User: What shape does this take?
Amino acid sequence: MQALVFNVTVSRFIAAKVCGFLFGKKSFYRGPARTVRLADVPEPVIPSPDWAKIRTIQCGYCGSDLNLMLLHDSPTSSPFTSFPCVTGHEIVGEIEETGKGVKGLSRGDRVTIMPILGCETRGITPQCRPCREGRYSNCENFAEGKLPPGMFIGINSGVNGGFAPALVAHKSQIFRVPDKLSNDSAVMTEPVAVALQAVFDNMPQKGEKVLVIGGGVIGNLIVQSIRALATGCRISVIEPSTFASELCRTAGADDVFSPGEIFDKTSEITGAKFYTPLLGMDIPMGGFNRIYDTVGNSDTMNVGLRILAAMGTLSMVGIAGDIKLDMTPLWLKLQKIQGVFSYGTARYNGKQRHVFDIALELMVKKKINAAQLVTHHFSLDDYCTMIETNLNKSVHRAVKTVVSFEDQYLKRQGE
Assistant: This one.
């Protein structure tokens, strides 16, 4: 079968970086040292009775996929990846075959895949502490067990991702999609779960003022998640794109403004009083009670800590590498920085549940409308155009783009 394969070695990394510097980002997916290409790979087979084979219907293209292909990721995470790999981790598909250990699922069932490859999928017992406590995304064994290194489907050489017609998944990763949900909703389950987990871990309280930095896919879904889970808080969003700003207002944001307005708006919304140091940015006393930074670079982190109130919490949602950070606000205002990565379980309506289950329920109940963020569908052959669309989202009025195999799915439905 044909799949979108990412591969890099030390020599290819250097060559790709040089080409990128000389010829621009296009060289990463079109040039002679490109990091991704369509390739023929073996169709996967079920590795054990606890796994199932799934035919892909749609796979979303994530910002982390773009960062991977452009070699923007920190080398620190490289021990927990393995190449070559078939990319794509936001998946809705159809069960084709199940192992004898997979119960409650049958051929033809529509499912979404929780891509994390933690202790259970790796056959490791006893499980590490994060896995035992339901935080599979923070597993301590991502480079151990029966699978090659790789935190999740899409960056693991032993388990291919969703930019391919078929894949396999462990029974613990598979969640049935309710009939009421469209494929465009179901393919968004993974990013919805990311946003929900960020909010569960930093839950706004009544009367608080919260800020979301970045109004893209995850920023928009954080706004919707807060509206679904919390009551009585004021939500502000920093977003430069007019199109994304409009969507954030529709999602429930009270205020949406550009990065250049941040200090004035912080003062206006929170009542913070700003002070001017001998050198550098102004620093306020007061500010937002909670901040969700979906961008995660030096600029957003430094501004975020400055405009975060005393004893406030900043959730680091955007995956960042090296950051130069002025830590003065952290100790001056006794703040917290909350790490955020993917999802696990959370307490919801009195029960401990997997966040994927909660995401599906909230979409069925229309408390989160994720399908509206799916703006573009591409065939796998057209992956270069999909990448270019993601590099110029404002021009194309793009939010979430997906690779679609729906024509094959509909053909199977008609047989």
Observations:
- DSSP finds 16 helices and 20 strands in the chain.
